[in-house]
Amino acid sequence: QVQLVESGGGLVQAGGSLRLSCAASGRTYSIYAMGWFRQAPGEEREFVAAITRSAGSTAYADSVKGRFTISRDNAKNTVYLQMNSLKPEDTAVYYCAARGSSFPPIMRHRHGYDYWGQGTQVTVSS
Description:
Blueprint: E1 2-7, E2 10-13, E3 18-26, E4 33-39, E5 46-52, E6 58-60, E7 68-73, E8 78-83, E9 92-99, E10 115-116, E11 120-125
Parallel strand pairs: 2-11
Antiparallel strand pairs: 1-3, 3-8, 4-5, 4-9, 5-6, 7-8, 9-10, 9-11
């Protein structure tokens, strides 16, 4: 089993920045890729970004491309999401996810992930 714990959420004004962290524990050797998803009230959980173990491949949703950056520190078993130029529409609960499969290297669908964190709230005020 793998446990994921997110941190770093909070309230920020539009145009501001936040950095989310996701610490993994347990059978971390089984993790191939990790991702961030978000879910706003009344909406489905949507893909935000993903990164492979070697950080050789990353992917972003069009809505965050150029503003968000995903990275990982394998020595710390931690993945980060740096969020800049935040907009009110970025308000959501952000979830960290991990998967063991390497095919495909990047997975944008939530059903492709094996483990999930509890989520951290991000609120962007206008």
